[in-house]
Specification:
Blueprint lengths: L2 E7 L4 H14 L4 E4 L3 H13 L9 E2 L10 E4 L8 E4 L7 H6 L2 E7 L3 H16 L3 E8 L2 E7 L1
Parallel strand pairs: 1-6, 1-7, 2-4, 2-5, 3-4, 5-6
Antiparallel strand pairs: 7-8
Length: 150
């Protein structure tokens, strides 16, 4: 049974935090789906991943290509079948069944956006009320600190 990890972005933007989390997930051997609702945001994240971190390239693809099943990291709005980890951006939905079936679900949200905060609070309540394990992480002075756990 997996868990949902909520990442409240205040110091580092999504474009910095997402590649770091993908690196950790890939280091665990997990195949990752980055799920978003906005095609333009997913394209921007695709561009960021193509530029890669200074210490290495993040192999990935955009959903809808001929090699989706072979991608270790896939960006899209699809189902979690075949993945060990889903990283939800831009308020993309994640179900309690997915949290239970996957190794990890990461929900990344902009701490400076009131709507994103409300969306994340609703997801936290829905998932924890359904019995999912969850952790809430926030940035403090450039470090990630776990603030809550259920």
């Amino acid at each position: 049974m997996g868990a949902a990890f909520f990442y409240h972005l205040t110091d580092s933007p999504l474009e910095v935090t997402l590649p770091m989390l993908i690196g950790k997930a890939r280091g665990a051997g997990w195949r990752v789906l980055v799920r978003g609702r906005d095609a333009a945001l997913l394209k921007r994240l695709d561009d960021v991943l193509w530029q890669g971190p200074e210490d290495g390239f993040v192999p990935h693809g955009m959903a809808g290509g001929p090699h989706d099943a072979d991608q270790p990291v896939l960006l899209g709005d699809g189902q979690s079948d075949g993945f060990a980890c889903v990283m939800s951006v831009d308020g993309a939905d994640v179900s309690p069944d997915e949290v239970s079936a996957l190794e990890r679900v990461c929900i990344l949200f902009d701490g400076h956006d009131g709507d994103a905060l409300q969306q994340a609070r609703g997801q936290w309540k829905a998932l924890t009320d359904a019995g999912c394990a969850a952790q809430y992480w926030a940035q403090e002075g450039g470090r990630w600190v776990m603030k809550a756990e259920k």
